[in-house]
Amino acid sequence: MGRQEHSVYPALFGVEEELQIEKTYTGQRAITVSADELQDALERYQQAVANGSPALIYDEPYRHVYRRHSSAGDKSYIDCLNAERATAECHSVREAIVRSRGVEQFAAGIAQSLIEADPAIATVIHRRRAGHFSDVIGTQDNIYIPTNPTNSSLHHDRILNLLIGIAVTRPYMSGAGEYKEGQFFFAQKFAKLGQFWATHKQKVQPVERGGERYEIRENDINICDAAAMMRLGSAPLGGALAQTTLFGKLERDLENILQGQDTDVDWIDRFNIPVLRPDGSFDTGKNANLLQAAEFYLRIADLFASREMQKQAGEQPAELIGIAEQIHDYTTTMAAVIRNDLPIESLVSKSDWAAKHTNGGPSLDYDTITYRNTGKATTTKETRGLGFKLRDTGVFAGDIPQAEVDVAYFTRPAGTRAALRGRVIEEYVAADAAWGCLTLFQKNPDGTTKPVIFYMPDPLQPEPAAEQARILQTVSRRPARLS
Question: What is the number of other CB atoms lying within 10 angstroms of the CB of residue 31?
Fold first, then answer.
């Protein structure tokens, strides 16, 4: 096969995180914050932010769910008992991870708003973990994978199957660790899904496709930045390989991995439940599935970084080469850990589950942020679990400083549709914002206005095209804001 005439390398990335938020009153157990309370808290928080500097402007309620896009490009809303926040469209895996960490600032704002509305609240609790609402709490990773129109159907099928294989075999790498009834699971999300499938005899597809956007729905929330980079970064490696002849070298792996997915309720558990000895180490002879997963990932990493991949698809993006190297190094270490050639501690700097497992296991407070009511009008005091301390003290691998996260929270990314959407929201009167369109208000000669849809179909377009620029000349602008 010759050189591809179009780029096979994913061009956009994004992460959506669903939040667990609870509250306590003095002397009482934690209870889930109701949907109405969350909605009111979100309204107050967003209004406070919109009045600040730099400004973040939000749209009106959209249908029955409040979907709010900000001038920084992100979307935050309440859906049932979830507060949810999605990053803007980002050009790199790292930028998406930087922006996804802004969920901690978002949760802190919600907590402050809840306490201001009800001073009797003693604490608000945010857990960055796959949660207790059956299968709906965790993260959803999104990637935009361009395909060649002449054979897009074949490539979409290949991409989807390969992403499913990647999603179900990577808990050893991206899992955040779960303990239940004496059993250890790599991934919290898949532990929940396995229970859900066994109880309801109904399966949830771990990957969904909409056009050239693929959503890997079933993920844990990683506090370790290195684990988050490998989690989000593994999918684009597969998305690119599926459009080359190198896909053939993964077909036998996929056949074995996907076998039984339609009939076996324990299918998803094969790669999520390690067999451990009483001392917590791996029972080497009983973890063949994990070694199979490791071999699959080593093959993906090596094929992506190969000269043949460069020959067929052009030079690989430097960031994705770096992620392939990370996955190779981590997986090589993991295979040695499974064989008991290395201790589990060898994985701690790049793995949430390993950090949790070696620092106290089921009794450990790893991923909780507690906001305590200090009795002052605008002050809450935070207490954070061990995972945040490991990240903030440099134990975890990764080079994402908090200062960068803070800046990204208030600024839109450059070079994608988020730049155009954010600018329009900030400068023009807008409602019913979605990722690809906004409702603006055209001025009539008599001074009235009528709604007009402002379409933004190209996720890679950061500036208005001619027709979009013409529309912007005719619609109502926001009043000038004081900085």
Answer: 11
Distances from the Cα of 348 to the Cαs of 224, 275, 292, 345, 475, in angstroms?
A: 9, 19, 22, 5, 54
Name the nearest CA neighbour of 188 among 366, 404, 380, 14. Answer: 366
What is the chain's pLDDT, residue by residue, as a tens digit (483 residues)?
445 567 899 989 999 998 889 999 999 999 999 989 998 998 888 878 776 655 666 655 544 445 578 889 999 988 878 889 999 999 999 999 999 999 999 999 999 999 999 999 999 999 888 865 444 578 899 999 887 776 677 788 899 999 999 999 999 999 999 998 888 999 998 877 766 666 655 566 788 898 889 999 889 999 999 999 999 999 999 999 999 999 999 999 999 888 866 666 667 788 999 999 988 889 999 999 999 999 999 999 999 999 999 999 999 999 999 999 999 999 999 999 999 999 999 999 999 999 999 998 888 999 999 999 988 766 677 899 999 999 999 999 988 999 999 999 999 999 999 999 999 988 988 877 889 998 899 988 888 889 999 999 999 999 999 999 999 999 988 876 544
Q: Answer whether 0.90 is exceeded by the pTM.
A: yes
Backbone angles phi, psi at 346, to 5 degrees: -65, -20
112 within 8 A of 17, measured Cβ to Cβ:
no
Cβ atoms within 10 Å, residue 264: 13
